[in-house]
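Thread title: Can someone regenerate the structure for this chain?

I was given the following input by a collaborator and told the matching structure tokens would be attached. They weren't. Posting the sequence so someone can regenerate them.
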Amino acid sequence: MLSPARFRELHCPGDPLLLPNAWDLASALTLAAHGAEVVGTTSLGVAVAAGEPDGAGATLAPTIELAHRITAAGIAVTVDLEAGFSDDPVAVGDVVAELARAGIVGVNLEDSTAQGLTEPVAFARKLTAVAAAAPELYLNARTDAFWVGALDGIGARTSASLERARRYLDAGATGVFVPGTLDDGTIATLASGITAPLNVLAQPGRAIGDLAALGVARISTGSLLFRASLAAITAVLDDVRLGAPPGTTARSIPDYSAAVALGVRRPSPG
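Best answer:
Regenerated them for you:
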């Protein structure tokens, strides 16, 4: 199985790692069989499967359980930990240390919660604790200035992303993830301004080679594959109803907000 050291080596600006994201053991096994040397987990997929909202810090147990299942299957995995499932840096470090003992190769931590962007100083403390608890792991610091929409304008969001990235790298992060749909100029600015591997989401209409030319080192599918699976099962169900061959019906992939809504628990009857 891939080592943490080898995982670090796969982050090459101009020759990016394509990281597909799994939400259960079956999807991880499928991705590995399809050629993925390493998989990530998607917090949205894990949360919705557990009947919880994404980004609410409610899925620590299923996240850890999934990491153990994937590593036990011999698949290298980097784990999405949302914002760390705690405001206490020591507690976050303890969680990551447990996962490191299970054999994961990296973690992803994000600087936002359901309440919005986190103060960068507080988030940096978590990164420092994680780097100390498991220095061998690839620590991907996700900064959400583009994702949560708290700032107006591309310029303000880019500046905030660069400033937060610098702070997070000083705190011990290995690489930086800036999610969102980004234009080429913004990606190039981030890649040149961040002195570490840049991770972006797969971008509509742009191939791996296009993002490689902009200096990207890692491309994640995020929740895309999970959301596509939701579209696929509803399309096949429609085919069954119509008596059509499975795969006949086309169905649009639900967006992030629609998928998040599935994970919001409904009141129990009575």
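The chain is about 45% helix and 15% strand.
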